Amino acid sequence: MLRYVTTNPGKVREAEEYLGEGVSQLDYDYTEIQSDDLGTIAARGAREAYRHAGEPTLVDDAGLFVRALDGFPGPYSSYAEDTIGVERTWELAREEDDRAASFRCVLAYCDGEGFDASPDPVDVDDRVAAAAAGPEADDDRETLPVKLFEGRVRGTLVEPRGEGGFGFDPIFEHEGATFAEMDEAEKNAISHRGRALAKFAEWHAER
């Protein structure tokens, strides 16, 4: 059984579209380290969740990357949403000539085993991630490799529109509609998480 670490059952439903019924939700509060890299954050979470559950685990980390703002809010998207908010983020981007942005998602998979070579990267630097988490999280246990799968969708920041979705969905427009204007099926069909899941599902089927 593959355990998807999330408190959001909607993510599990989306994963089931790609992986079938062999995935279940694991509500586990892993340590979310501070890093400018989505993969480092997700990999640290996947290792910790695997050590907790003792089963193959999948952790994701995602963010909104605004080109004119040097990638902000990026991995700090959740914090930015909670502090400055969606409207203020739009106001920052509105002053820019270039409003290009992308939603990115990295899925991190850990099952305690090594991985054969493939185009998708493997994170093996457990020491760096542990150090970022703080001395209380560091230990001498064997390093666990983590396989990473990235998905992204490009778009443009616009004035908030739509009542659906969550987070920065109302200000992210893709091919004429914001994510908040799409229903769940429409959004999942083109989402950054869906694209990462599609890569993972293809690889996992041969695992």
Question: What topology emerges from the helices and strands here?
Answer:
Blueprint: E1 2-5, H1 9-19, E2 23-26, H2 38-53, E3 57-66, E4 73-74, H3 77-83, H4 85-94, E5 100-110, E6 122-123, H5 126-133, E7 146-157, E8 172-174, E9 177-178, H6 184-190, H7 192-205
Parallel strand pairs: 1-2, 1-3
Antiparallel strand pairs: 3-4, 3-5, 5-7, 6-7, 7-8, 8-9
Helix pairs in contact: 1-7
Concise summary:
Belongs to the HAM1 NTPase family. With 207 residues, the protein is α+β, with helices and mostly antiparallel strands.
Task: Give short descriptive properties of this protein.
207 residues, alpha+beta, Maf protein, 9-stranded mixed β-sheet, 7 helices, 9 strands, globular
Tell me how many strands there are.
9
H/E series: EHEHEEHHEEHEEEHH
Number of helices: 7
> What is the number of independent domains?
1
Question: What is the typical, i.e. mean, pLDDT?
Answer: 89
How helical, in percent, are the residues? 25-40%
Q: Helices and strands: which structural class?
A: alpha+beta
What amount of the residues lies in strands? Answer: 15-25%
**Main sheet specs:** 9 strands, mixed
What is the CATH architecture annotation? Alpha-Beta Complex
Radius of gyration: 17 Å
Q: How would you describe the shape? A: globular
Low-confidence stretches: 135-140
**CATH level 1 name:** Alpha Beta
Query: What distance lies between the first and last C-alpha atoms, to the nearest angstrom?
Result: 13 Å
Keywords: Hydrolase
Organism: Halolamina pelagica
GO molecular function, one term: nucleoside triphosphate diphosphatase activity
EC number: 3.6.1.19
